[in-house]
Specification:
The chain has 102 residues and is mainly alpha-helical. The protein contains three helices and no strands.
Length: 102
């Protein structure tokens, strides 16, 4: 009953489990969203170019480099944000526990 009335919070161990689940699921989900967007907009590009040339083949080496670099930076920032979110939640729970015990 204490969990339902928020008198007792979930433990830090549960937050750590959710962090690792999200650290794996977020990049996979972002990958699927990126593939979906590429397929959606590739159809528009195909209609414009009247051909079936892949979008990746149309990019020169410098554009490919920047696209891969952008994807990598986005991935790292996404993971960093996820980590900071859970560090904040864990710190909050530790502060609350210290105040309740004090």
């Amino acid at each position: 009953m204490d969990y339902l009335t928020f008198n007792t919070f979930i433990s830090i161990e549960v937050l750590i489990v959710f962090y690792y689940l999200g650290a794996v699921i977020l990049p996979v989900g972002a990958w699927f969203v990126a593939l979906w967007l590429l397929r959606k907009y590739q159809l528009l590009g195909d209609a414009y170019q009247k051909g079936k040339t892949a979008t990746w083949d149309l990019l020169n080496k410098q554009q490919r480099f920047w696209l891969v670099l952008f994807g990598l930076v986005f991935f790292l920032l996404m993971e960093l944000f996820w980590r900071l979110l859970f560090e904040f939640l864990i710190a909050y729970m530790q502060m609350r526990d210290a105040l309740v015990q004090g």
